[in-house]
Amino acid sequence: xxxxxxxxxxxLLAGCGxxxxxxxxxxxxxxxxxxxxxxxxxxxxxxxxLTYTGSAKLExxxxxxxxxxxxxxxxxxxxxxxxAKRMWVEVDRGSAHSRSGKGKMECSAxxxxxxxxxxNVNLAFGVRPLSATISRADLVLKQ
Length: 143
Hints:
Layout: H1 2-16, E1 19-23, E2 29-37, E3 40-53, E4 57-66, E5 69-77, E6 82-93, E7 96-111, E8 115-127, E9 131-142
Antiparallel strand pairs: 1-9, 2-8, 3-7, 3-9, 4-5, 4-8, 6-7
């Protein structure tokens, strides 16, 4: 039984991929980076440290550009369900909330070809909380 658990854990970690790019944020706004991506699936993770009061939806709007051509767009919910979490701490006390750690968001993109890719990202609240403090909200790309 322990060999099965070790094998399952290895598969889970391998499925998380390797970090191939990071777009840093310390608040709402736009930012971009250029990185080399391989053809195939790109998974998006959030690396957050934030507190907020009330209901909120924090969204990354991502555009991937290769050779001046838009090749993929995706919207990712930084506060939504995470299929994997690392060092994740989530606190909900009435209307006060905090999130800290790394989580794999339920969004991805598929690239037909690899190469230098500009990652343009807009981070904004789709549902604005009563108050919010964003210490970090980096978008992490993994393949």
